[in-house]
């Protein structure tokens, strides 16, 4: 008898086509894409994908653009972190300027 392979959950719908490696990659991306994500507006875990790169919070109704498979891409997180650092530096500079004016 022929040896049988294990099913790949939802990737089993592709049958014998495409090979194991692409099906595993697809399964990983699909799992991340379909789970609920945190809303940037109300901070609840209720964001679902509407279509490619469009995400909507089921709780507050906020609709926003993000990545194709996740609402916040790694690049987007890096840019936001840099932006926050710049804002903090600006606040520090303003405080220093206020102290110099008071003296």
User: Measured on Cα atoms, how large is the radius of gyration?
Assistant: 22 Å
Per CATH, the architecture of the domain at 36-71 is Single Sheet
Overall pLDDT confidence: 89
Report the end-to-end length measured between terminal Cα atoms. 90 Å
- Quick one: biggest sheet? 4 strands, antiparallel
Beta-strand level of the residues, as a percent range?
15-25%
* CATH level-3 fold name of the domain at 36-71: N-terminal domain of TfIIb
CATH structural class of the domain at 36-71: Mainly Beta
Strand order of the largest sheet: 1-2-3-4
Taking pLDDT < 50 over at least 5 consecutive residues as the criterion, the unreliable ranges are none
- Helix tally equals 2
Succession of helices and strands: HEEEEH
Describe this entry's structure for a reader.
The protein is an alpha+beta fold. Among the domains are: 36-71, N-terminal domain of TfIIb (Single Sheet); 73-103. It has helices spanning 20-34, 74-102, and strands at 37-38, 45-51, 54-57, 63-65. A four-stranded antiparallel β-sheet has the order 1-2-3-4, with no helix packed on it. The protein is elongated, with a radius of gyration of 22 Å. The protein starts with 19 loop residues before the first helix and ends with a helix. The relative contact order is 0.09. The model has no long low-confidence stretch (mean pLDDT 89).
């Amino acid at each position: 008898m022929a040896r049988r392979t294990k099913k790949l959950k939802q990737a089993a719908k592709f049958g014998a086509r495409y090979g194991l490696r692409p099906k595993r990659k697809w399964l990983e991306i699909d799992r991340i894409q379909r789970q609920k994500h945190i809303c940037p507006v109300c901070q609840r875990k209720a964001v679902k994908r509407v279509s490619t790169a469009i995400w909507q919070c089921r709780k507050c109704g906020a609709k926003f653009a993000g990545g194709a498979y996740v609402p916040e891409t790694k690049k987007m997180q890096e840019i936001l972190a840099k932006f926050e650092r710049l804002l903090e530096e600006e606040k520090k500079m303003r405080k220093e300027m206020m102290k110099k004016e008071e003296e």
